Amino acid sequence: MRLLIIEDEPDLRSALCAGLTKKGYITDAAADGNEGYELALVNNYDLILLDLNLPGMDGLTLLKKIREKDLLQKVLILSARSAYEQRIEGLDLGANDYLVKPFDFGELEARVRSLLRRSFTQYNTVIHFDRFRLDTRVRLVYTDDNEVVNLTPKEFSILEYLLLNRGNVVSAGELIEHVWASDDSLFSNSIKVHMSALRKKLAAYSSNEIIINMRGSGYRIKKPDNDHL
Ligand code: CA
């Protein structure tokens, strides 16, 4: 899951980036509205965290411009307590949610999770597959014996993304877009390397083929026969 943080206060910006990265999200950050808008145009973000009082383009203008281009882009507004009217205007302009500063990081993370889940038809924080379950809240994968599968954050993110798009073929390009940070080297972080490590770890617990390689088009996890699981 890839997030864009547009926030001009350096301490808050770096705390958000560090905290969310630690939780396994890919984060890009912008310190002013113009830079943020540029990044939002070029990249495909699962969620944008948007401060309203920004140098350059202000947050509400930025939101309006994003909405003109993309009705489905998820945006979470971060605003000062005093900015009540701005917040209402933001929601009117199509922000998906807002948080009032100062906020607790745990609450922010819960909102982020909830907004990201809304992108998919996935309302449960736990996704079951084969003999495993992936918990999006604690970002861990367990076997049915409650053993933790020891995945790296990147392997977890790949698996989570594939599971949230279960049944669909996910291309390598789409994985790069959503799971890789723009500053990562694609050579040292080749998808194939992470994918093969991830498969090996799952294969240690299950002999079923879980991630199917669709030659030339990408990767897919089969939909469960029992779809409500
Ligand atoms: Ca600000």
Descriptive overview:
By secondary structure, the protein is of the alpha/beta class. 39% of the residues lie in helices and 21% in strands. It contains 8 helices and 11 strands. The chain has helices at residues 10-22, 33-42, 59-69, 84-92, 105-118, 153-164, 172-179, 191-203, and strands at 2-6, 26-30, 47-51, 75-80, 97-101, 126-129, 132-135, 140-143, 148-149, 211-214, 218-221. Strands 2-1-3-4-5 form a 5-stranded parallel sheet, sandwiched between helices. A 4-stranded antiparallel sheet has the order 6-7-8-9, with helices on one face. It has a two-stranded antiparallel ribbon with strand order 10-11. Strand 7 (132-135) and strand 8 (140-143) form a beta hairpin. The longest helix has 14 residues, at 105-118. The two termini are 22 Å apart.
What keyword list fits this structure?
single chain, 229 residues, alpha/beta, five-stranded parallel β-sheet, four-stranded antiparallel β-sheet
Strand content: 15-25%
Helical content stands at 25-40%
The side-by-side strand order for the widest beta sheet comes to 2-1-3-4-5
Question: Which small compounds were modeled alongside the protein?
Answer: calcium ion
Radius of gyration: 18 Å
Compact overview of the structure:
With 229 residues, this protein is α/β, with parallel strands linked by helices. Helices cover 39% and strands 21% of the residues. The two termini are 22 Å apart.
